[in-house]
Amino acid sequence: FGETKQRGCSGIQHYRDVIIPALESGTHVICDRGIDSAIVYGGNTIAEFARVVALHEEMFAEAGVPLIWPDLIIIYDVTPETSMRRMEASKREKDAFENELKARRVTSNYRALAALYPNCCLIDAEPEGEDGEKTIFAEARKYIYPLLGIKDGGT
Questions:
Q1: Dist. CA 148–CA 55, nearest whole Å
Q2: Spatial separation of the C-alpha atoms in residues 120 and 76, rounded to whole Å
Q3: Each residue of 112-152: pLDDT tens digit?
Q4: What are phi and psi of 153, to 5 degrees?
Q5: Which residue in 78, 140, 139 sits closest to 107, CA to CA?
Q6: In a 10 Å sphere around its CB, with 0-12 CB exposed, 13-18 middle and 19+ buried, how is residue 52 labelled?
């Protein structure tokens, strides 16, 4: 769990410097890769998920920073094949987690996380192109807008 601890330290600083001050000021916070990412990248089984959460809770408590669970987690669900194809097309350098074997594990873990936590919503992110983006984001808005108090249509 060495890498999990390293990510946890980064998360503590992000909570302390960005998330908590924003929440205290009344600002809604939307971010990518929070505690959910730490769980799915740090564990391989449901039991390991619990250990990763416990480790984060301990680290945050030791730092005197509250670990705030998100009100909503949107998971853009794609197959590992789609994920790898999109990464290749982006031409950017991949990190250590961006290979097909790890993509399969992480995809499986995100789906398991969504089944465990009722505030996780899986959105089919397979559609391609501009029309696909519109479809994906329209689906995400169905979950995000009510949480922010925004009525249908963004008004």
A1: 30
A2: 10
A3: 888 888 889 999 999 999 999 999 999 999 999 998 889 87
A4: 85, 0
A5: 78
A6: buried
